[in-house]
Amino acid sequence: MLNNIGLPGLLLIAVVVLVLFGRGKISSLMGEVGKGITSFKKGVAEGTKELDDASKESAETARDVTPTEDKDKV
């Protein structure tokens, strides 16, 4: 469906959106989108850091829980 739009169709859509919402509204909307993307990237980086820290901590405190056989019971 979107394969047939082409450049003239995209330009027409852009002009209609600009007329309907105005330049100021679109500018503020794009600013909010940029802030959202920045916040998302920051959250992903913090989450990754927390996971890395947790895995390092668990690796440092890991202990051997392999059951051992008692020769007296056998």
From TrEMBL:
Protein name: Sec-independent protein translocase protein TatA
Oligomer status and interactors: The Tat system comprises two distinct complexes: a TatABC complex, containing multiple copies of TatA, TatB and TatC subunits, and a separate TatA complex, containing only TatA subunits. Substrates initially bind to the TatABC complex, which probably triggers association of the separate TatA complex to form the active translocon.
Family, per entry: Belongs to the TatA/E family.
Tagged with keyword Transport: yes
Disordered: annotated segments: 50-74
GO molecular function: protein transmembrane transporter activity
Organism domain of life: Bacteria
Annotated Gene Ontology cellular component terms: TAT protein transport complex
Gene Ontology biological-process entries: protein transport by the Tat complex
Tagged with keyword Cell membrane: yes
Entry's transmembrane regions: 6-22
InterPro entries reported for this sequence: TatA/B/E, TatA/E
